Every structure is written in C-alpha cells, then in structure tokens.
Amino acid sequence: MHVVRDAQAGPHPIPIFDIDDPRIAPYRQVREKDLVGREGLFIAEGAVVLPHLARSPTCEAVSVLIADSRIEALGSLLGQFDPQVPVYCASQAVMDEIVGFPIHRGILGLGRRTEEVSLTRLASNLGARALVLVLVGISNHDNMGGLFRNAAAFGADAVILDATCCDPLYRKAIRVSAGACLDLPYVRLAPEADLLGVLCEHGFSPVALSPSGKVALSETARPGRAAVLLGPEGPGLPDHLLDRSMTVRIPMAQGFDSLNVAVAGALALHHMAFVAKAKE
Fold it and tell me: What percent of the chain has pLDDT over 90?
C-alpha cells in the first residue's frame, strides 16, 4: 500500500524531493501535456474539484499531489479517497518545478476516465422526462467548463458532445466546471453520426438556441425528453441542425443579438428544468 490511513491520523503522504521521481511523472509539465496529449489521464486541480474526483461515477483517481504546507488542512479531503490511491507531497518550490509553473493552490489529483458509455446505453437509463445538453463545436475550455457547471446546477441528466467539441477533461475545463465534468455522464458522438437522427431515435426533441429562433424562450414548452442544443459563439449552430429543430431565441435589448454560450445555456436549462410547462 502506498498510503496508510487511520481514522484519527488520516493519510500519511509520501514525500517527493526529486522532480524526476517516476511516481510523479504524469504531473510534470502539465501545460505541455494538455497540449500534446495526456494518454487517457487528466489533472484535477483545487480543493473544490478534488472531492468530485474522489467520488466520480465516471472517473477514477490514480494519485494525489499536495504541497506539504496544505496537508494538515486537507486531511478530511484526502480521507475521501480510496486508501489505495497514493498521496504524494512536496515543498511548494519542488511542486512548482514539477508542474512547470507556480501552482498556488498546491492541490492536484491525477484521474482516468473509466469507461466510454454509448448514447444507446445512456439513453436507456434515462427517464421519460430526461433533460440533456447537446454541444456542437464548443472549442473554448472555459465555455465547456461553464456549460457542464450549468448542466449540473439545473439538473440535466447528461451532456452529449459532437465530434468537434474540445475535451471536458482538460484541466481548465474541469476547474471552471467546479468538478461537474467529473460528475455528469457524457457521450461524444462519432464524426459520421447523424446528431438529430440519433437524438430522435432515442425519443429526444431537439430545442436549438439561436438569435433567429422562431419562438421566444419564455414561450417554449418543455418536451418530454428535451435536448437543448448549443453551438459555438459567432457561427452558432449550423443550418442543417436548425432546420430540423424547434428553434428558440432569448430576447434582449436592441443592439445585442447574442450571449456568451454558457450564459445562454444557463437560461435555457433553467427554463426547461423549472419554468416551462409540459407540452399537452
């Protein structure tokens, strides 16, 4: 066992003095790993996010790396991890050198997604009143994290990504999501997938957000199985999706025709979850 825990003393971390120690190799130069590929692993960062890694239904914790000055205050957090998960600690200076920049939070976890769930399997486990968020071409990691956070906050059951979306398990996306990227089930569709065909096959009615939408959000009824579609800022959703969906707009003051995609998603999800009346 890498870590010894007991109810009173909590975890006994393993000290790291050498930045070339192979046990902490996945933490080295994490920004570069975000850019060139992480071999199925990801980094979770901060005291808000790590509890989500500890209890994630879709990912598993591989290890934890903590600045030694934070260990005492984080005993209860570290106690949430499985005893088999190694907890490493290092001085702030060594930790900064390991990750390649000043990591002021001094709290990192290494995780791995445990399985890729198919949309068929996911949809079969959702109820008749399921609400899913469907993202098309979202390439900004801040927006991706914000959208996952909104989906969790307003009770969405899952997130569906098209093949062109960025990775929700990118370090910044996880941080912005406040850990929601590790909580919500999500599916990435294959490049050749017919997005709306797949949604309709599983009983979802597509509700597409667009500044040119035919119906105001406040007047939109809630389909039984609702799929809220959002596209990238600027181009928005492509016409071939808008043409086959119920299109919805968010009215706003003269001179503005659009919102940040995460803000628009929050308004739409809140409406579908708590405001909209069910279709007769």
Answer: 80
- Tens of pLDDT, residue by residue over 129-171, are 999 999 999 999 999 999 999 999 999 999 999 999 999 999 9
Q: pLDDT tens digits for 18-69?
A: 999 999 999 998 887 676 566 789 999 999 999 999 999 999 999 999 999 9
- List the CATH code of the domain at 5-113: 3.30.1330.30
Residue 280 has pLDDT above 80, yes or no: no
Question: Where exactly are the structural domains of the chain?
Answer: 5-113, 119-275
Q: Give the DSSP letter string of the chain.
A: ----EETTTEE-PEE---TT-GGGGGGTTHHHHHHH--TTEEEEESTTTHHHHHH-SSEEEEEEEEEGGGTGGGHHHHTTS-TTS-EEEE-HHHHHHHHTS--TT-EEEEEEE-----HHHHHHTS-TT-EEEEE-S---HHHHHHHHHHHHHTT--EEEE-TTSPPTTSHHHHHHTTTGGGTS-EEE--TT--HHHHHHHTTPEEEEE-TT-SEEGGG--B-SSEEEEE--TTT-S-HHHHTTSEEEE----TT-----HHHHHHHHHHIIIIIPPBP-
The answer to whether the CB of 44 falls within 8 A of the CB of 62 is no
Q: Which CATH architecture has domain 119-275?
A: 3-Layer(aba) Sandwich (3.40)
Give 71-129 as a DSSP string.
Answer: TGGGHHHHTTS-TTS-EEEE-HHHHHHHHTS--TT-EEEEEEE-----HHHHHHTS-TT
d(CA 202, CA 254): 39
